[in-house]
């Protein structure tokens, strides 16, 4: 079964060992811009006054990603340096997607990204985004096909706009619809 | 000036400093969804 | 026996028949799930102490007996890695499954007074078998991912 979680539900979740200790808290979710795959998390400390931890949690060290906690086997699962995370934040073409625009390839602005939808499983991916669009309010939009991410916007195929969902429950159907549509279009192009 | 004016000023300054601290801490801890990858142009494989 | 029934029992020194303190809480260790120690409130000995399960002579319905007072250890002297560290007290902690799902709060622990083995962990709505206990830490009680 595919389960979808909002990124905002994962951010600030505790990182808990199987021994029951909360070793950190999720700060950022890092994903691969080209494939959408979740690479891992940057962390903050658990105390009210603690700041960012200079350690990161790679996806391969996550035991399970649940609705109430990110489970790891032991505290050793945290990497000692966050150099990969830091370089990503500073890299051109990367950066936080929350707050940037989603635009179709033909140039229509669909809205501002307020949240990301994570498809959980063995290899979790960013499966879509929640948009705040003028006139339509809040909509969930799946991503598939050629998606390009810059620090200003996420560019998606034009068909994306026709496959949005209102709730997380109906998101799976919308994502499947968009995938089929893009496959169909690709076949038609081949036949031409 | 009346003595209590100073009290009001001190309380106001402390409240402002407290609020600034809370805001700073909230920003330090707030998270995001961060795209990584040197090649921003790419294809997401349909899965 | 339910642990909440044992709370408040006197801890009696066999050599002097004196009361050393009363049972307030316990610590658990997994695989196999068992009580690793008892937390005591002691009178005139400077607060909180810990009694390791192996030093319990017998666990009766009204009192716990111990050979002598030297078996008690101050809680402050117990290092965080040890099984009897207060972090391993399960009562009042949230239950998290291995899959990261919260499943209520531990209210009680059912255990065997002879062996210290834990048979069940009880929350308001559910019970978890002692066999499913994965770990007890400062934040949560972790249990295996048993689907409802």
Report the sheet-strand fraction of chain B: 5-15%
Regions with little confidence, pLDDT below 50 for 5+ residues of chain C? none
Q: Give the helices and strands of chain C as they follow along the chain.
A: HEEEEEEEEEEEEEE
Give the CATH superfamily of the largest domain in chain C. PRC-barrel domain
> How much helix is in the residues of chain B?
55-70%
Q: Give me the number of helical elements of chain B.
A: 1
Strand content of chain C: over 45%
Biggest beta-sheet profile of chain B = none
Low-confidence stretches of chain B: 38-47
DSSP, total strands of chain C: 14
* N- and C-termini, Cα separation of chain B: 73 Å
Quick one: how many beta strands of chain B?
2
> What structural category arises from helix and sheet content of chain B?
alpha+beta
Q: If strands are numbered along the chain, what order do they take across the biggest sheet of chain C?
A: 5-6-1-2-3-4-7
How many helices of chain C in DSSP terms? 1
Question: In one word, what is the shape of chain B?
Answer: rod-shaped
Beginning-to-end CA distance, first to last residue of chain C:
26 Å
Write the layout of secondary structure elements.
The complex is a heterotrimer of chains A (192), B (47) and C (148).
Chain A: E1 4-6, H1 7-10, E2 14-17, E3 22-32, E4 38-44, E5 52-58, E6 62-65, E7 70-72, H2 83-90, E8 95-96, E9 101-104, E10 109-119, E11 125-133, E12 137-142, E13 145-146, E14 148-149, E15 153-156, H3 171-191
Parallel strand pairs in A: 2-7, 9-15
Antiparallel strand pairs in A: 1-10, 2-3, 3-4, 4-5, 6-7, 9-10, 10-11, 11-12, 14-15
Chain B: H1 3-29, E1 33-36, E2 43-44
Chain C: H1 3-6, E1 10-13, E2 19-29, E3 34-42, E4 47-52, E5 56-59, E6 63-66, E7 73-74, E8 94-97, E9 102-105, E10 108-111, E11 118-122, E12 127-129, E13 133-136, E14 141-143
Parallel strand pairs in C: 1-6, 8-14
Antiparallel strand pairs in C: 1-2, 2-3, 3-4, 4-7, 5-6, 8-9, 10-11, 11-12, 13-14
């Amino acid at each position: 079964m595919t389960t979808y979680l909002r990124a905002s539900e994962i951010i600030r979740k505790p990182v808990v060992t199987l021994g029951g200790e909360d070793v950190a808290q999720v700060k950022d979710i890092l994903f691969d811009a080209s494939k959408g795959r979740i690479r891992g998390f940057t962390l903050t400390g658990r105390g009210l006054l603690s700041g960012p931890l200079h350690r990161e949690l790679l996806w391969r060290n996550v035991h399970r990603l649940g609705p109430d906690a990110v489970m790891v086997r032991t505290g050793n699962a945290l990497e000692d340096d966050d150099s990969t995370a830091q370089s990503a934040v500073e890299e051109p073409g990367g950066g936080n997607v929350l707050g940037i625009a989603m635009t179709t390839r033909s140039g229509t602005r669909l809205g501002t990204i307020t949240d990301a939808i994570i498809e959980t499983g063995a290899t979790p991916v960013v499966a879509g985004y929640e948009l705040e669009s003028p006139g339509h309010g809040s909509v969930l939009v799946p991503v598939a096909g050629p998606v390009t991410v810059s620090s200003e916007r996420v560019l998606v195929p034009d068909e994306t706009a026709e496959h949005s969902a209102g709730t997380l429950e109906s998101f799976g159907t919308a994502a499947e619809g968009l995938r089929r549509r893009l496959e169909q279009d690709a076949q038609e192009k081949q036949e031409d | 000036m009346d003595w209590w004016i100073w009290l009001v000023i001190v309380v106001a300054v402390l409240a402002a400093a407290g609020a600034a601290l809370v805001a700073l801490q909230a920003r330090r801890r707030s998270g995001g969804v961060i795209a990584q990858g040197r090649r921003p142009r790419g294809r997401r494989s349909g899965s | 026996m339910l642990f909440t029934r044992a709370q408040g029992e006197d801890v009696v020194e066999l050599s002097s028949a004196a009361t050393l303190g009363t049972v307030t809480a316990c610590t658990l260790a997994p695989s196999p799930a068992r009580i690793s120690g008892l937390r005591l409130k002691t009178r005139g000995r400077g607060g909180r102490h810990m009694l390791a399960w192996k030093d319990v002579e017998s666990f009766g319905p009204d009192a716990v007996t111990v050979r002598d007072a030297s078996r008690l250890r101050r809680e402050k002297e117990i290092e965080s890695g040890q099984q009897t560290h207060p972090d391993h007290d399960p009562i009042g902690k949230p239950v998290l499954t291995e899959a990261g799902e919260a499943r209520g709060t531990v209210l009680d622990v059912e255990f065997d007074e002879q062996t210290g083995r834990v048979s069940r962990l009880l929350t308001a709505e559910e019970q978890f078998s002692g066999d499913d206990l994965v770990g007890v830490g400062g934040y949560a009680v972790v249990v295996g991912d048993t689907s409802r």
